[in-house]
């Protein structure tokens, strides 16, 4: 049985959130000038990435693409370069797809209504609510992980907040608390309380919390019990062998298949599984490369949301004659000194560094 708040309690709770936001709100570039475009870009960047990291990316991104029209027209390589290091590159591609639609269908301005926003690529329920409320002042909630955590603790909700039923319950609760015409301050206030006081990892700072008076878990003395944890799915481990192929002071990179993990991005050639020296030589021979020198390279591990890549590597110098016949569209040779200009996923950071400075 969860606590039922009276109308008055809900009004007071909302008031505390807004007073807190007015006094304590964090100064952030997209908040200081909350245009719909800035709110949109920041919300997309903030998915899976911490605020501190996003600030620099956001400033660089806006400097490179000052308007939605600039984003729509941007060269994809330049766009992905701006995104390099943030990961989840589909977010950048969806931003551009949506920007093109906004230019064509909405005269370059993001629509105001949540129902219209949600039709754009990469914009889900939360982001639509955030843009609509923060940039346009519409009475919409923006239920993200902070809202879920804070509500589950306020209500001491023992159910599963991650399934459809739990999400509905939390969303309905916040809708019933949302004060009229103050959605921007209210939503950002709850986000800030969630991010800085009612922490996702570690002990919440209940003594400084402006809404502790209404918090059931605080009164019960067990806020860390909420939200009830979902059982984590084990990640699949994939073993990979990365090949740093050198020819004439150049290194080979290739394009990954369009679909799937890191779809369409560049990588160093990779073989599934761990392979030994002889297997590498045979693998290259089959593809028309003659090996001149080969040595064991760096190892690295990269964690995606549901997969881990455990990578080993070989550094191989190949014969120039066979190389010139072997190049196809998916593969290209890049001067070692220019590798930093190429957009490579963070998974290859260790290997890129090796190419940049190693001999
Ligand atoms: S009182 Fe504590 S647990 Fe409750 S909302 Fe505030 S920080 Fe979170």
Describe the structure.
This protein has 359 residues and is an alpha+beta fold. The protein has two domains: 7-225, Hypothetical protein, domain 2 (Endonuclease III, domain 1, Orthogonal Bundle), CATH 1.10.340.30; 236-357, Nucleoside Triphosphate Pyrophosphohydrolase (Alpha-Beta Complex), CATH 3.90.79.10. It contains 16 helices and eight strands. The protein has helices at 7-24, 29-32, 36-46, 51-64, 68-73, 76-83, 90-105, 114-117, 125-135, 145-155, 164-177, 183-196, 216-220, 277-286, 320-326, 349-357, and strands at 236-247, 250-255, 266-267, 270-272, 291-296, 300-303, 307-318, 331-335. Strands 1, 2, 3, 4, 5, 6, 7 and 8 form an eight-stranded mixed beta sheet that branches. β6 and β7 form a beta hairpin. α3 runs antiparallel to α9 (125-135) and α10 crosses α11. The chain is elongated. The termini are far apart. 33% of the residues are buried. The mean pLDDT is 92. The chain binds iron/sulfur cluster (SF4). The site of iron/sulfur cluster has 14 residues, from α10 and α13.
């Amino acid at each position: 049985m969860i606590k039922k708040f009276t109308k008055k309690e809900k009004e007071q709770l909302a008031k505390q959130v807004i007073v807190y936001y007015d006094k304590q709100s964090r100064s952030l570039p997209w908040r200081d000038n909350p245009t719909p475009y800035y709110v949109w870009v920041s919300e997309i960047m903030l998915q899976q990435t911490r605020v501190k990291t996003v600030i620099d990316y956001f400033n660089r991104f806006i400097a490179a693409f000052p308007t939605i029209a600039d984003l729509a027209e941007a060269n994809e390589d330049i766009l992905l370069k701006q995104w390099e290091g943030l990961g989840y590159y589909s977010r950048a591609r969806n931003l551009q797809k949506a920007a093109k639609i906004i230019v064509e269908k909405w005269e370059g301005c993001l629509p105001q209504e949540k129902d219209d926003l949600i039709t754009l690529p990469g914009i889900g329920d939360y982001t639509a609510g955030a843009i609509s409320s923060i940039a346009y002042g519409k009475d919409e909630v923006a239920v993200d992980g902070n809202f879920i955590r804070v509500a589950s603790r306020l209500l001491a909700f023992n159910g599963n907040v991650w399934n459809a039923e739990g999400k509905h319950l939390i969303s309905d609760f916040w809708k019933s608390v949302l004060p009229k015409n103050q959605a921007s301050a209210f939503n950002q206030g709850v986000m800030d309380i969630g991010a800085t006081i009612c922490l996702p990892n570690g002990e919440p700072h209940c003594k400084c919390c402006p809404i502790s008076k209404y918090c059931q878990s605080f009164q019960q003395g067990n806020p860390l019990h909420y939200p009830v944890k979902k059982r984590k799915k084990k990640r699949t481990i994939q073993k990979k062998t990365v090949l740093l192929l050198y020819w004439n002071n150049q290194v080979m990179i290739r394009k990954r298949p369009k679909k799937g993990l890191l779809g369409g991005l560049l990588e160093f050639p990779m073989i599934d599984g761990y392979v030994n020296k002889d297997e590498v030589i045979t693998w290259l021979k089959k593809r028309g490369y003659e090996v001149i020198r080969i040595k064991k390279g760096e190892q690295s591990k990269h964690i995606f949301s549901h997969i881990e890549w455990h990578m080993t590597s070989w550094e191989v110098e190949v014969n120039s004659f066979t190389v010139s016949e072997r190049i196809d569209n998916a593969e290209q040779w890049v001067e070692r000194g220019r590798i930093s200009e190429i957009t490579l996923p963070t998974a290859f950071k260790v290997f890129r560094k090796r190419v940049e400075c190693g001999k």
